[in-house]
Amino acid sequence: MRSVAIIGIGQTKIDEQWERSLRQIAAEAICAALKDAGHESADGLFVGNMMSGVLDQQNNLAALVAEASGMNPAEAVKVDAACGSGGAALRAGLMAVASGELESALVAGVEKMTDRHPHEVTAALATAADADYEVEMGVTFVGLNALIMRRYMHEYGWKHADFAPFAINAHANAMHNPFARLHHRITLDDFEKSAMIATPVNLLDASPIGDGAAALYIVPAESVFGGARILIAGSASVTDTIAIHDRPDPLFLGAAYKSAQQAYRQAGVGPQDIDVFELHDAFTIMSALSLEACGFAERGQGPRLGLDDHISPSGRIPLMTRGGLKARGHPVGATGVYQVVEVVQQLRGECGETQVPGARIGMAQNIGGSGATIITHILKAEL
Amino acid sequence: MRSVAIIGIGQTKIDEQWERSLRQIAAEAICAALKDAGHESADGLFVGNMMSGVLDQQNNLAALVAEASGMNPAEAVKVDAACGSGGAALRAGLMAVASGELESALVAGVEKMTDRHPHEVTAALATAADADYEVEMGVTFVGLNALIMRRYMHEYGWKHADFAPFAINAHANAMHNPFARLHHRITLDDFEKSAMIATPVNLLDASPIGDGAAALYIVPAESVFGGARILIAGSASVTDTIAIHDRPDPLFLGAAYKSAQQAYRQAGVGPQDIDVFELHDAFTIMSALSLEACGFAERGQGPRLGLDDHISPSGRIPLMTRGGLKARGHPVGATGVYQVVEVVQQLRGECGETQVPGARIGMAQNIGGSGATIITHILKAEL
Question: How far apart are CA B340 and CA B343, in angstroms?
């Protein structure tokens, strides 16, 4: 298997983009990545998307996006792993190039979520859970995360405010990211007084949806000469049961643990080597669980990293340096690609006020469902 | 890129399976393929499916199916290319194994379409077309094919009955396939008197939907010893515009031409070497267009192959030997996998009354949308 490098990135601002279609948003990010890579097309297009069928009445999305981006007759396919679709699309593109089947691939994530009534969006998000055994019982996706968070607080004795640093850090970092959806700082007081959604998850525990697209251009590493190369040094996708009640321990992300271990092994690194970590902070509880499963904190001690101020761009393990799902925004099927785009920006040293000094190794972890599909990528800047 | 072989197949009968869930149907086919291959799991699961989000309120389908099939923690992803999803899933699995990233993969296609009101299914099928520029104008998927067929008849002077042999052959062959949805022969008289759906497409031009799943187990060819090996000798996916009105010639499947040419080149064969061809006969007109694009007939002369009796199992180019989409049935996202399963059955000599004598090289062509995504696979039995 040959090594693969990222040579182009593109993204749109995450926002309510009512005046633009799904294909236009996708094409904007793709064309930006093509331009950044200095190419006019690629051999294949891998599109991460979760809900175009449900919300936009559009399947066969990748063919549509290929046409809108001027990429016909390139192979094109849509990949769905719910909110993990973006990471899964990168996996698919990576294997296509690593196999030698394609010489280049465009990996994109796109989602358009704000045109519909919130009830429809809530129902669409619930399709990431088990339709027969969770959703049928009336639980929403936020509700599932609330059940996990409540149990976690009970088991380990945390209070709600202990999760605040994850959200505060994300909002602070998003201030410097022009593509982020939310551009306002929040305080501990804001966090504590925020509107309740599903106890104990309140509005500032949760990430906002949005319309947006991000894209990556990948090629065999051997074809890249001169300057720094951004290599995909580790890539692993692992599944767990989709229904939370089927897991032996709902407070441990087993798939995150296995996925991170595989990616560490491939990259020849460990948690201590990671300079920046873009994790899947759809809800603050997921930040804690991800940090623990990936070896950055002991079981039940994830919130400690935030409280001890280790997660800012100058901290021990900088998180959500461009705003994370919490403040950059969470256009679900696109999120996994945004994360990797942002790690590339860090490794290129393009992050300005939130630049992690000397960042050379970065990790992105994308989650589909409440821990059902977990995809970890480790990137290395090779000088 | 290493060569890949198919060592296991599985399928369910295509039917109305109202008493069984999507995951149960998928697991039945997967478990059959695992048993056939003599393995308990695989490193990855690639699920072709088009409409689980729209009709079953279930995304993240691959994680769900992995759990139902006992395949956790294997990597799992759903692949969508509309009715070409099955073929696209095989491409994804193929690249995963060919790259060396995985040592084995389970490729499945599944669809559950009969629980819903026909109006909902018609709307769900239309998501394979361009939502903004075709469906918004009120055209259904059958309607698009009717427009193509009418134009084709006008341009080349065929009458409707000239397409009958495609349907008659498919129904005759399905009589001997226990997994087929339809088990009744049809005559030219039946064909001509059948109910009109969208002029000139009548009920016997069109394939029936259904609930069903099919699965393949693939491994590196170098790991297979003893007996015949079924190799994936050619595999190519090509896109065209999704909207038919954007194509320079709506009567030529440009993506089928390019896809077949790539697959022929990879396999080192030409149309004259193909012993059996499972094409995408969603409508009789698509049989004619596919045969022409793949080099079996001159432009506008596809129906001639049926009229001259060249398409039966003992003919020059045997088509739909297990019933095709027309009579085996068309559970959309599963169809591409059924086609490949059936080619494997031919190459193994397991087709009884519809066995093509001495079949060694077979081709399957799967189409997403009205020609937008076309995936061609060529299999070779290597003794």
Answer: 5
Residue B37 CA to residue B53 CA, distance in Å, equals 30
What is the percent of chain B where pLDDT is above 70? 100
Question: How many angstroms separate the Cα of B349 from the Cα of each of B230, B276, B378?
Answer: 12, 12, 17
Catalytic residue positions of A? 83, 330
Per DSSP, B205 falls in state T
How far is B364 from B107, CA to CA, in rounded Å?
15
The span from the CA of B379 to the CA of B383, in Å, is 13
Does residue A76 belong to the interface with chain B, where contact is any CB pair within 8 Å?
yes
Mutate: best of A94, A239, A266, A370, partner B, most B CBs <10 A: A239
Q: Which residues of chain B from 102 to 121 reach within 8 Å of chain A, CB to CB?
A: none
- Contact call for residues B104 and B222 (beta carbons, < 8 A): no
Task: Give the span between the Cα atoms of A1 and B185, in whole angstroms.
Answer: 50
Residue located via tokens 């409440």: A370
Note whether A95 contacts B91, CB cutoff 8 Å.
Answer: no
Our CA-based measurement puts residue B49 at a distance from the nearest CA of chain A, in whole angstroms, of 10
Out of B1, B53, B60, the one facing A372 most closely (by C-beta) is B60
- Which residues have C-beta within 8 Å of that of residue A42, sequence separation ≥ 6? A34, A71, A74, A102, A104, A105, A106, A217
Nearest to B370, CA basis, from B198, B134, B64: B134
**What's the pLDDT at A227?**
73
Backbone angles phi, psi at B129, to 5 degrees: -95, -175
Give me the sign of the Cα torsion angle A62, A64, A68, A73: positive
Separation CA A325–CA A334 (nearest Å)? 11
Q: How far apart are CA A163 and CA A303, in angstroms?
A: 6
Helix pair angle (A332-348, A85-98), 10° resolution = 60
Provide the shortest C-alpha distance from residue B351 to chain A (in Å).
32
Residue owning tokens 């309607």: B143
Measure B94 CA to nearest chain A CA, in Å. 9
- Taking the Cβ of residue A1 and every Cβ of chain B, the question of whether any pair is shorter than 8 Å is answered with yes
User: DSSP string of A204-268?
Assistant: TTBPP--BEEEEEEEEEGGG--SS-EEEEEEEEEEE--SSGGGSS-TTS-HHHHHHHHHHHHHHT
* pLDDT tens-digit readout, B44-93: 999 999 999 999 999 999 999 999 999 999 999 999 999 999 999 999 99
Interface test with A, best of B51, B69, B77, B244 (most A CBs within 10 A): B77
Check if the beta carbon of residue A121 is closer than 8 Å to that of residue A24.
Answer: no
Under DSSP, is residue A141 helix (H, G, I), strand (E, B) or coil?
Answer: helix
The pLDDT score that the predictor gives to residue A114 is 96
Tell me, what amino acid is at B278?
E
* CA distance, residue A123 to nearest chain B CA (Å): 8
Taking only the tens place, the pLDDT of each residue in A231-272 is 999 999 999 999 999 999 999 999 999 999 999 999 999 999
Please say whether the beta carbons of B60 and A242 come within 8 A.
Answer: yes
ipTM of the complex: 0.96
- The reply to whether residue B75 touches residue A238, judged by beta carbons under 8 angstroms, is yes
Question: What residues of B are in contact with residue A67 (Cβ under 8 Å)?
Answer: 239, 241-243, 246, 372
For A122, counting Cβ atoms within 10 Å of its Cβ (0-12 exposed, 13-18 middle, 19+ buried), the class is middle
Name the pLDDT band for A228 (thresholds 50, 70, 90). confident
Q: Does B33 touch chain A (CB under 8 A)?
A: no
A3 contacts on B by Cβ (under 8 Å) = none
> One-letter amino acid identity for A126?
A
Does the annotation count B330 as an active-site position?
Answer: yes
